[in-house]
Every structure is written in structure tokens, then in C-alpha cells.
Specification:
Number of helices: 8
CATH architecture of the largest domain: 3-Layer(aba) Sandwich
Keywords: Methyltransferase, S-adenosyl-L-methionine, Transferase
CATH class of the largest domain: Alpha Beta
Shape: globular
Largest sheet: 7 strands, mixed
Structural class: alpha/beta
GO molecular function, one term: methyltransferase activity
Number of strands: 11
Protein name: Class I SAM-dependent methyltransferase
Strand order of the largest sheet: 3-2-1-4-5-11-10
Helix content: 25-40%
Strand content: 25-35%
Order of helices and strands: HHEHEHHEEHEHEEEEHEE
Number of domains: 2
CATH topology of the largest domain: Rossmann fold
CATH superfamily of the largest domain: Vaccinia Virus protein VP39
Pfam families: Methyltransf_25 (PF13649)
């Protein structure tokens, strides 16, 4: 099952944790437009969160469907993309990333900010890949990032952010035997009227060897897979296991 976040955390996320998708959005669009230049401008955003990545593609003239299991996240996404929802260029679906079916077909599927690390195991990840593959047009592309084992090992710490508009405490632990990270995020964020919103969220991320993930993608029907850094998604990595985070790029 994909994580389903609470309303307070969704609001805090919408205020504090959208920088990554804003950064990688242009990189993903450049990748797609270089690799798939035939003009198909439809995107499926899996685990779309509060909609910032979808908004990037919408503003570039794409039609987007966002899928997420958290209704509180989707509520913010609908507000963030309101004008495109009204025009019919944006639609949202509440569904589990490992168990969904859509009638539309897309040229590009994306999932960002290690969302798929939240899936419970390699079988669940494979189910997600199968669902995505069935939604893509022939020649379509699927790009997503995962924390690697190295990346999750860095979770063994406590960090505190003390800012004028927020106080955030991250408590992370990594289980080497399970290749699993657990993190509790708690704190307060200042609201527009000056009051403070309290949130607490605990979630688990799983890491899999790059080879296992690649095998799962090929098993469900993707024809070619490589790994890359976010900085340049067109350049395959020689040693992806040495990276804390990698993007997988898979083609139908």
C-alpha cells in the first residue's frame, strides 16, 4: 500500500517540501521531449502529492492525470491546479499506486521524491510497475526516483530545523537487515493568519538493489531501462548503487 498522509501533514508538506519536484520538473520534461519527440503531451503523475510537478507540465502545455492515495494531498493539489482542473487539462484520481487501472493512455509517466520507496515490498513495486506499463502508449516513457540502500543508510540520525515559519524534527532509523528506513517527522508550521499547525507523521521506506528494480521493470514489459542522476536524466550511470538516489528511466 502507498502511504496515505493525514491532513495536517499534507498542509505542512504543501508549505515546506515541494522544492524537489520543482527542481526535477524541468529535467523530466527535457528528458521526455528529447527521447519522445513525436508530440504526445500526456502525463501520468503517480503519487502526485500536492500537485507541483503536475503544475509544471500543465504550464508547459501538457494534459496531466495525477494519482495519489491521500485525499488530503489531493485536496491541496486540486487547489494548486484549480484553473487547469476547470479547463479539463488536469484530472485527479484517488487510488493505490500498486493497484489501479485507467482508461486513458499516456506518453509519459512520472513518480518523484522517493514516493515508490513507500511501497511495502518488491512484489508491490512490481504491481505498481505493471499498472503503469498498462497505462503507457507504445514507445512511452516511465521515469521515477528511488532512495538506494546507501541513501536510506543516511537516515540514522536526528535533525532539527528551527526557522521563523517552522519547527521541524526528523527522527530517522535504518534497519540494515530489512533494508528499511523509518522516519518520524513532527513539528509546527506557521499559517497565513499567524497561528501554528502541529503535525506528526511516521512512515517507512524500503530500498531494493538496483538490479532487482531493473528486473521487475523488464518483467512487466518495459523494453529498456537505465539509471541516471537528477542533474542529467539522459546520461546512464555506470555505478548506480554508489548513489544515494537514482532515477530509473524505462521505455515501453
Amino acid at each position: 500500500m502507498e502511504s496515505s498522509y493525514t491532513a495536517p501533514f499534507a498542509q505542512a508538506y504543501n508549505q515546506r517540501w515541494t522544492g524537489f519536484v520543482t527542481l526535477v520538473g524541468p529535467k523530466l520534461r527535457t528528458l521526455y521531449e528529447q527521447v519522445c519527440s513525436r508530440g504526445e503531451r500526456s502525463v501520468l503523475d503517480v503519487c502526485c502529492g500536492t500537485g507541483q510537478l503536475a503544475l509544471h507540465f500543465l504550464q508547459a502545455g501538457y494534459v496531466v492525470t495525477g494519482l495519489d492515495n491521500s485525499e488530503p494531498m489531493l485536496a491541496h493539489a486540486r487547489i494548486n491546479c484549480a484553473s487547469f482542473v476547470s479547463s479539463g487539462e488536469m484530472s485527479f484520481v484517488q487510488a493505490d499506486a500498486a493497484d489501479f487501472s485507467l482508461s486513458s493512455r499516456f506518453g509519459f509517466a512520472v513518480s518523484t521524491f522517493d514516493a515508490l520507496n513507500h511501497l511495502s515490498g518488491i512484489d508491490t513495486l512490481l504491481s505498481c510497475f505493471s499498472c503503469v506499463h498498462q497505462c503507457l502508449l507504445l514507445g512511452g516513457l516511465f521515469a521515477f526516483d528511488l532512495n538506494t540502500v546507501m541513501g536510506l543508510r543516511r537516515w540514522n540520525n536526528v535533525t532539527v530545523e528551527d526557522a521563523p515559519d517552522a519547527m521541524v524534527i526528523n527522527r530517522g532509523m535504518y534497519d540494515e537487515d530489512k533494508r528499511q528506513g523509518r522516519i518520524k517527522i513532527s513539528g509546527f508550521v506557521r499559517q497565513e493568519l499567524g497561528n501554528w499547525l502541529r503535525f506528526d507523521e511516521t512512515f517507512v521506506e524500503n530500498a531494493w538493489p538496483v538490479r532487482e528494480v531493473t528486473t521487475a521493470l523488464l518483467e512487466v514489459g518495459f523494453s529498456a531501462v537505465y539509471q541516471a542522476r537528477a542533474a542529467d536524466l539522459t546520461v546512464p550511470l555506470a555505478d548506480p548503487e554508489s548513489e544515494p538516489r537514482v532515477f530509473f528511466v524505462a521505455r515501453v
